[in-house]
Amino acid sequence: MIELLKLCGFEEREIESELPRVEKAFNKLGITEEDIERGKQRLTRYFDVEFKGVRKALRLCVMEFANGVVAKEVGKKKVLAGFMAPGLDVVGSAAVSKSGEVFSAHHSWAFLLVASRIFNKAVPVLEAAERKWLKAGAVTHCANVKSFLGEFALDLVSKPDLIITSGYACETAPKTLDLLHEFYNIPLCCYDTCQDMDLSEDRYATKRAVDLSAKSIRKLVERIQDIVDFEITDKMLWEVINARGKMRIASGKVRKLVESSDPLPVSSTNDALWACLNTLTMSIEETDEAVDAINTFYEELQERVANGKGVVEKGAPRVLTYCPPNYPDPTPEYVIAQSGIAVVATSFGTSLPEEKLYPLPKTGLKDPYEAMALSRQRTSNNQNLRQRNRMIIEECKRLNVDGVLDRYHIGCRALAGDALLLEEAVKKELGIPVLLMEWENFDPRMYKQGGFERRLDVFKSMMTRKSG
Amino acid sequence: MQEERLAIHLRDRPAQLREAKKNGIKIIGYFPGNYVPEELIYASGAVPLCLVHGGSSQPADAALTVVPHVICPFARAQIGERLLKNPYYSMIDMLVAPITCQHLKKVAEVWEYYGDLEMFKLGIPHQHDNDFELEYFTDRLRALKDRLQTFTGNEITDEKISEAIELYNRMRELLRKISSLRRTSPSPVSALDFVKLNHASFYADPAFMVEVLDSIYQELKDKQPTVKTDVPRILLAGPNIGYGDYTVLELVKAAGGEIVIEEICEGIRYYWNKIESKGDLFKSLARGYLVDRVPCAFMRNSAKKRLDFTLKLIEDFNVSGVIWYELLCCETYDSESYYFAQKMGEQNIPVLILESDYGTSATGQLKTRIEAFIEILKGEIE
């Protein structure tokens, strides 16, 4: 266990103080000695743990996972649990920065990363959800939502005082939380917007949708204030937004470095870690630690680039992947790198240029609620299909990729629904191959390595032929 | 007699609409779910047409070239009917797409993607506990009015909207009255006939439809049940009954059961409420279509509200069992089927959950399950 924690960036001196809490959480999850050994192997194989920056990021994720499992047992008086709740990272961070008695988490990213990606323990959690209302089979419920329900069904997490969700891109999450409220008697708060912009409006976000979202988030904050019993001021929210802005800037530097380096310096197996880090509900102090983790990683990566080291050969076919990585299972990303394909970027929730946002913020936004709403509205997955395809095509051009791998998450109607027309649009405009992979981003049972490898081989040879 | 008149009207309706188009009248389609106020379309001088075809695998399969199988068969059918050039789907000049569930939202995006049709996306706030959500919907209805005026070139006055509300109120009232006749046993109208009548109201000329419904109601209300019956009385619940999706209705009837009431989101015109036709008409339309109704499953916190409404229907219509009919890949209703089955179970109300992807291969299995369910209900009645 100590060795595993060291691989996850825990310093000698803090292991003593943190070990009981982490152990308690691992025990609750049923992690055995054998699992610890497997975890160590997976960490070494699938994460670049030789980078100090990666270890620092892992530490923050493990901490949030452990706190989420045992929050009430270790003295947290108020627990907020969000799911598919963008913006809660800011609001929750403001609450935990103000009071050590509050725990807030945006499940289930840290849970998935630790329980599944490190320990390969996703399946029992998914099966528990399938015994409830997210059944297995042709209906194809999202396994991400299943993992959230499964945590409750198996009593793996502290019972929250409020569960929070939004319906920005999903109906399964709000429905599941509605039923959690009905069956488990947990108070629920949903916040929403309307994605009703049509092509005639020719912009990336409408003021009306942002305003609706901002008002809805304000209601959420009022609800949280009632629970935590203190005020969450605009100033507190801005402090978090600004702190998290530093994370975005740091991540942007890493992204640019990866995109512009040949050979590709790092495998996309790490993507899930950075995505997870971005969703953690950290205090300001922890957010600074996250910034430090990313900056450390950036410096280490620069060194690797300078030494000409890469995870694939120089000149390997460059690929843009669409949709997030397979969360509980790092094998698919690992296999991509092994096949000699360079994943230079993952386009999901790509932020947009400013020029088509509704009235341009000339002097900067003053209302933190508007800022939170806008940051969500301006991402690619909130656009209409035609705009989304356009953005991905532009991204392909900018990155000069040889192909697109759309590993579409079949449990998500919004994402999966685009796949065929995205393929058509990219092929028509850019003439590059598109590999469509129908899979479940959160269910390791759906991944079949043999078939995946064969399809990657064909995909690679199509790209090589095209560029050669 | 009235049924025959209606059948002739529906047979001639596409030709009639094509003729209207030639004379400059716009045909404006919209997706079902009862979130688009037809009153506004009607008041603009255009013809409102609810696109509600479903039940056939051919259009649903045709859409698989465009969207994957996880989009529900009804939503896929809305793409497929257009690809296959269904006359109604081909004649519309503009589409009002309510942004409801992810499936119909995707259909709107696909239609929009092809870019050959004027479209208005009508944002439906997925909850309405706060004033600002109702205000949002009200504002979007005003925006829809502006778009309709520009598109049709006709001014939409309050007077015209008020008249349209009254016309549609009358239609809803007559459907409610006819439906309510099914409280008696045996029902004077079968579920199949009622659903077909309801579907006809989406395509027929509304004034003509009101006239037909009124005559049918007059005929039925005096028709006293002659024989007492112990046929199991069933409530049909679920997301959707498309125009043509009649297999379950037919199988229940053939198996000796009687569906006496439906609690369906899409495909059945919502007829339980009236819209206020005076005062601020946009506010009353917004209230009527968003607030004063039973919410569909995509709405937030909707499960309990619909369960309570369903339990009330079970009591009012003296129902002995529930058939939950859902379409494959409809994730919200599938989740709720568990909740409903649990809650009904607590009250000893038998529930049969059926799924369909519109394929005919599963009909045999559906038949067996429905027959077995009805046998169980009969056993309980005895």
Walk me through what this model shows.
The complex is a heterodimer of chains A (468) and B (382). In chain A, helix 10 crosses helix 15 and helix 11 packs parallel to helix 13. Chain A has a four-stranded parallel β-sheet with strand order 2-1-3-4, sandwiched between helices. With 468 residues, chain A is α/β, with parallel strands linked by helices. Chain B has 382 residues and is an alpha/beta fold. Chain B is 53% helix and 13% strand. Chain B is built from 15 helices and eight strands. A four-stranded parallel β-sheet of chain B has the order 2-1-3-4, with helices on both faces. Chain B has a four-stranded parallel β-sheet with strand order 6-5-7-8, sandwiched between helices. Chain B is globular, with a radius of gyration of 20 Å. The model of chain B has no long low-confidence stretch (mean pLDDT 95). At the A-B interface, helix 9, helix 10, helix 16, helix 17 and helix 18 of A face helix 6, strand 4, helix 7 and helix 14 of B.
Task: Please give a quick description of this structure.
Chain A is of the alpha/beta class and 468 residues long. Chain A has helices spanning 2-7, 12-29, 33-46, 52-70, 88-98, 109-118, 122-130, 143-153, 172-184, 207-228, 234-260, 271-279, 284-306, 331-338, 368-377, 385-399, 413-416, 419-430, 449-467; strands at residues 78-83, 102-107, 162-166, 188-191, 318-322, 342-347, 403-409, 434-439. In chain A, the strands form two sheets. In chain A, strands 2-1-3-4 form a four-stranded parallel sheet, sandwiched between helices. Chain A has a four-stranded parallel sheet with strand order 6-5-7-8, sandwiched between helices.
